[in-house]
Design brief:
single chain, 540 residues, alpha/beta, Urease, subunit C, domain 1, 9-stranded mixed sheet, 16 helices, globular, disordered N terminus
């Protein structure tokens, strides 16, 4: 890395001493770490300036054009941007976190805080009979401080999870008593520090919730100033109806609205973005604090079951497979699944991301249409066979979006940057299948493609949408900004070189261009090497 100078070594031994008293000669050194001569972009959207940043313990002590006092350790940041650590407002990084708390693909993107519990699914609450799982959000957050992940982790409470605990996977309305119990679970989660509530209305059992149910579950958010985060009921042909529903829920609950991974899916729906923006503007004018986020790719990642109609999944996989045995229902399921595949451009726009069954491992990373043709099987029939062999757990990537709309979503004042990605590694338990590259490349991809190359955003705008803006949405005090008193979550990168390398053919590639990343004042990522894990549980 060019022009990189360390006044003190940045090895693990040096990192471990951060925060301890030290002397330089006979004089006390006032700061643990000083970042020298970088281009400071503080996350607020204000213009950049060249300056220094000092850290004491886990907090930023000072940000100024010149800090004369020395630090026990110093990093030469010339030719680099010094920015707040990125806040990923929509992450699935908790999926492999317990197996691999280093969270390599997350930490190496400059991300220092993630918000999980997305799409209606959170790690808690759980039924009392599940003795191995934390019963509450509070217990799960407490477990994070024992695990000590590489980055800070907060969570929304998943309304699909709440419904499953109380009702199960059945498509029916909640009784009054069940609704009261669900509301109580949401209130408990918020008292424990949940950062909001999420829904996944294309997934079961969340898809079985009515507007009235979701509104009631979101009302506790209002008093805390927290938002309802929704993977909407539809992102293609019924997109505008789904937007209207999301706004109605937030308005009825009196809370903010965060539309997850906003997209117009399928070529015939690409022209709907103006109408989407008009609805968001009208909602904001009417007092609903509506905003949205998006990952920087034209393909989504979901389960292969999502190509099949929601009604066919009533009762979970057992109910789904039973319906496939009924000739009348099977014909209807097939017709609707074929329509869904056609909507995104056909079976070759479906890539298999992950399977469990050994027989299906050769399908990982393959386009389903071509793979089925090579086997001499219709893609629909192969899909059903794979779902049976893998007990419904088949990951897919769907190529369905368009570049101009993505650029407009990012340029919009209410648009934020998120990954919607998992946590991966080049080896070990966090390497599985052929996942979406967003888990390793989202944030550097925005900096390289949409700032440096396509000039959709200025660097100040992009960093604001990665830091202070998402942090404010989930009420994370003292994160997402560079100012005295804020937590020392900082990332340092070369704006001319930063770039993603992960792609759909090989997602297991880390980005380049990062000099160092600090999490709570500790150097977590130092170029190509790793420091100690210093992440914490986040509470609103």
């Amino acid at each position: 890395m060019r022009r990189r100078t360390f006044v003190s070594a940045l090895g693990a031994a040096g990192v471990a001493l951060v925060g301890a008293p030290a002397l330089l000669g006979a004089r006390r050194v006032p700061y643990d770490l000083v970042l020298r001569g970088g281009v400071i972009i503080d996350g607020t959207g204000r213009p950049r300036f060249r300056g220094d940043l000092a850290v004491s313990g886990d907090r930023i002590a000072r940000v100024a054009r010149r800090i004369r006092e020395t630090g026990r350790r110093e990093i030469d940041c010339r030719d680099h941007v010094v920015a707040p650590g990125f806040v990923d407002i929509h992450s699935h990084g908790d999926g492999s976190m317990s197996l691999d708390p280093l969270m390599e693909s997350v930490a190496r993107q400059g991300i220092t805080s993630i918000v999980v519990g997305a799409d209606g699914s959170s790690r808690a609450p759980n039924v009392p009979e599940d003795l191995e799982a934390p019963p509450t959000i509070g217990a799960w957050l407490a477990s994070l401080n024992v695990l000590r992940p590489a980055v800070n982790v907060g969570t929304c409470v998943g309304l699909g999870t709440v419904r499953e605990v109380v009702i199960g996977e059945t498509d029916r309305p909640a009784s009054d008593a069940e609704l009261a119990r669900m509301v109580a679970l949401v209130e408990q989660a918020l008292r424990d520090g949940a950062l909001g509530a999420s829904s996944g209305l294309e997934y079961t059992p969340g898809a079985f919730a009515s507007v009235a149910e979701l509104t009631a579950l979101c009302r506790p958010l209002a008093a805390r100033g927290l938002a309802y985060h929704t993977h909407m009921r539809n992102e293609d042909d019924q997109l505008l109806d789904a937007i209207d529903e999301a706004i109605a829920i937030a308005r009825g609950a009196g809370c903010g609205l965060q539309i997850a991974h906003l997209k117009t899916q399928g070529p015939r729906n690409w022209g709907k973005l103006d109408a989407v923006f008009a609805r968001v503007a009208a909602a904001r004018a009417a007092g609903v604090d509506a905003a949205f986020d998006r990952y920087p790719y034209l393909a989504y990642h979901t389960g292969l079951t999502n190509l099949f109609p929601v009604w066919s999944r009533d009762g979970g996989m057992a109910g789904f497979f039973a319906r496939l045995e009924d000739p009348a229902m099977a014909a209807r399921i097939r017709a609707e699944a074929l329509d869904n595949a056609e909507l995104i451009g056909g079976w070759d726009n479906v890539q298999i991301a992950s399977v469990y069954a050994a027989e299906d491992k050769p399908a990982e990373g393959k386009r389903l249409g071509a793979y089925a043709a090579a086997l001499g099987v219709h893609p629909y029939d192969l899909s059903v066979q794979m779902l049976r062999r893998n007990e419904g757990s088949v990951g897919m990537i769907g190529f369905a979006m368009t570049e101009p709309n993505l650029e407009r979503i990012y340029a919009h004042p209410q648009g934020m940057i998120a990954s919607d990605g998992g946590s991966y590694a080049l080896s070990g338990p966090a390497r599985r299948g052929v996942p979406h590259p967003r888990g390793a490349g989202s944030f550097p991809r925005v900096l390289a493609r949409y700032v440096r190359e396509r000039r959709v955003l200025t660097l100040e705008q992009a960093i604001h949408k990665m830091t202070a803006l998402p942090a404010s949405r989930v009420k994370l005090a003292d994160r997402g900004v560079l100012r005295a008193g804020a937590f020392a979550d900082v990332t340092i990168f070369d704006p001319d070189r930063v770039s993603d390398r992960a792609d759909f053919g090989d997602p297991f590639q880390y980005p380049v261009g990062f000099l160092a990343t600090l999490v709570n004042g500790v150097v977590s990522v130092d170029g190509d090497s790793r420091g100690p894990r210093s992440g914490r549980a986040l509470r609103a």
